[in-house]
Design brief:
alpha+beta; Alpha-Beta Plaits; 4 domains; 5-stranded antiparallel β-sheet; RBD_domain_sf
Length: 469
């Protein structure tokens, strides 16, 4: 294994952040082969193959350190799933966690594709896009505005389609923009939004450490993570945004919201590849219908176990005048008190006769061509292979996982780690585990993306969780 002085290792491995790759490879691959394969993407500063302390044999896990984050991200995008040597399995490549991180999961693309920038207050979203489009394809741009005046705060987000594009933008854009990676949306509080308070660190006054360009910046939520809005406030609108973890279809969402009379528009939001983003935009012809739909469907479980989130979004109408506020509050009060003489709980909602019942829906919604169900192996079977699975945004129910992973044969049991977004699948036959890994890695099941990897064998007489890296 390539050795570096301890001081140099500690100082340079995470400089710059996200410049080190974690790779799951064939145990036969050498450091020289890895260096040769990855060096085409940039300056490789080090390659480490993790070896067993007793046998000195490779564990099939390696690290590759680049000089730049953009080089590491590009290598990850291009090398993931590639076969380096004939007869070996495709390698899996991820951005490695920083050595100081306390998290036990891979760095998600969500954490690598959004950047946060300081911009002139005169910038429009089109100006922001024109400025940063030279570094890659942009999914969206957002300017943070004052919720009361509507004026720009001189802060914005740019979301790219690829991590390498965001990294190139950070490295090459004008330093006055002070571009950094934005913090993941999951860390935003429910009460914050783009028009909320200025971010911690007071970038608007020129504070902060400008040398650490890749430091995560604690910010508010962004499109797709809408905060709850008080129906008594002036934020009640005719437009709603629905979020869902399950992979609902356009037709199912339409049928659900069409229960409330007055729906004018319903569209499931999709990415550039046609995949559902997990949220839909719905607009009603009047405030009353929108208020009622929000009250009845926010928290409604469809299918059972999948709790829908429904919140108001800006419909562009001006309700700042006293008359507008009074009219809106009157409608909201009437709808909330009367509720069309129906039960007040959201689960009191009864779908119409033509709404697709849960029992008729496919229990597993995915684009994977799953084999037929197979019987579980006897519970006392010896586990010959274990799969380690990382879930995003949250774990699937054990019965759903059992339904999916048993289809490749010899599944013994499913085990989810409490309080974590990971789990283990035990197989009695190695070939069955390999087939499940190849078929399910990177796939989305019921709206949940899975990363499937081989788990290290458990240590004898140890109660500690087996390491997977």
């Amino acid at each position: 294994m390539e050795e570096f002085p301890v001081k140099q290792v500690n100082e340079n491995l995470d400089d710059p952040p996200n410049s080190r790759l974690f790779a799951v490879t064939s145990r036969s691959l050498t450091e020289e082969q890895l260096r040769e394969s990855f060096s085409v993407f940039g300056d490789v500063q080090g390659v480490w193959v993790v070896k067993d302390k007793q046998t000195k044999e490779s564990k099939g896990i390696s690290y590759v350190k680049f000089a730049k984050s953009s080089q590491a991200c590009l290598a990850m995008e291009e090398m993931h799933g590639k076969v380096l040597v004939d007869g070996t399995k495709p390698i899996k490549v991820f951005i490695a966690q920083s050595r100081s991180s306390t998290r036990h999961r891979d760095v998600e693309d969500e954490e690598l594709t959004r950047i946060f920038v300081m911009i002139p207050k005169t910038f429009s979203e089109e100006d922001l896009k024109d400025t940063f489009k030279e570094y890659g394809d942009i999914e969206y741009c957002v300017i943070i505005k004052n919720k009361f005046t509507g004026e720009s705060k001189g802060l914005g987000y740019v979301r790219y389609y690829k991590p390498s594009q965001a990294a190139v933008a950070i490295e090459n854009c004008d330093k006055t923009y002070r571009a950094i990676l934005a913090e993941p949306r999951s860390k935003a509080t429910a009460t914050e939004d783009y028009s909320g308070q200025a971010p911690r660190g007071d970038y608007s006054s020129g504070g902060g450490d400008s040398t650490n360009q890749y430091a995560s910046f604690p910010m508010a939520s962004d499109p797709g993570n809408y905060p709850p809005i008080d129906y008594r406030s002036s934020d009640v609108t005719r437009c709603l945004m629905m979020s869902t973890r399950a992979a609902l279809t356009q037709e199912q969402i339409f049928a659900l919201f069409d229960i409330i009379p007055g729906m004018e528009y319903c569209e499931l939001q999709r990415d550039s590849y046609g995949m559902s983003k997990g949220h839909a935009l719905i607009r009603y012809g009047n405030l009353g219908s929108a208020v009622y739909a929000k009250e009845k469907l926010n928290g409604f479980e469809y299918p059972p176990g999948n709790r829908l989130g429904v919140n108001f979004v800006d419909d562009g109408e001006d309700r700042s005048s006293p008359v507008g506020r009074m009219a809106m509050q009157f409608v909201a009060t009437q709808m909330m008190s009367a509720a069309w003489n129906g039960p007040s709980g959201s689960q009191g909602m009864k779908p119409p006769p033509n709404f697709p019942p849960v029992s008729n829906m496919s229990r597993i919604q995915t684009d994977v061509n799953l084999p037929s169900l197979k019987k579980l192996a006897p519970p006392d079977s010896k586990a010959k292979e274990r799969l380690f699975v990382v879930f995003s945004p949250s774990p699937l129910p054990p019965d759903v996982l059992e339904d999916v992973f048993c289809r490749y044969g010899s599944l013994i049991e499913v085990h989810l780690v409490p309080g974590r977004k990971v789990g283990y699948m035990k197989y009695a036959e190695k070939q069955c585990a390999d087939e499940a890994l190849d078929a399910l890695h990177g796939r989305v099941i019921n709206g949940v993306k899975m990363k499937v990897m081989l788990a290290d064998p458990p240590r004898e007489e140890s109660h500690k969780r087996p390491r997977t890296y």
